[in-house]
Model the fold of this input.
Amino acid sequence: MEYALGIDLGGTNVKAIAVTNGARVLAEISLPTGGAESTKWKAAVRRAKGEIETRTGHPPLWIGVVAPGLPARDQRSIAFLPGRLPGLEGLDWQDFFAFERAVPVLNDAQAALLGEVWLGAARDSHNTVLLTLGTGVGGAAQVDGRLLRGHLGRAGHLGHISLNPAGARDIVRTPGSLEDAIGDCTVALRTGGRFSSTAELVAACVRGDSYARRVWHESIRALAAAIASLINVLDPQTIIIGGGIAKCGATLFVPLRRQLARFEWRPGGARVRLAPAELGDRAGAFGSAWHAMNFHG
Done:
């Protein structure tokens, strides 16, 4: 049976999924890579591909790859990822696999968005925004059915939009960014050291800690303001919220929807659908498989 192999390479694990164009999963595997500083990731990728081929009984017809960093314009490699996964920058994946077809490369958020549009929370949506809320804030956008990449491949770094021009600069020099307003990376700073993670902050909020509730709701108001801004710029049908912070469930989504009701421009009463991601850590592999099957580069 013909299938696409979606490979999601991260700093800790490589996930691989064999999936048909009818969305039937034939096999999947996850293997450790040895860490973001290790050179063992190449062997892990080759082993994952080999295991999938053994389980399916034949090689894939298409291969797609997800990796951190900025993909090259031709999507054959990752053009920019300093200091992690040695040997990844500039690696041509078609050459790496000695594969007869092009092996297109996406970054993790781009691939997750495509996965959610194909099989997850944004099925059949043609204008979609994904925000991944975790240690940092990532994202991707689909406009009129096309993944938004931009001139250098930077499009979709939604965590680095500015909410406060007088704020401190984040890791890409954006002042007062969304990432700094809600990312797990700044919880200690935002709480004066009282909490070290979003999970701790939300747990205290649920217990009724008034200070935790104030900080959490300030963060959600910032997120709602950012989402309202993205709605005005990109006019999506659906906004998907993924990442670890999205697992807070109603503690996140109830106040977020309340704030959006204040901030969102709703012509004729139309409102954007806000939904939690559905595919979890498989989204990137599914998205890369779909992209490979539909790639015409």
The chain has a mean pLDDT of 95. The chain has two domains: 4-107, 121-277. The chain is about 35% helix and 20% strand.
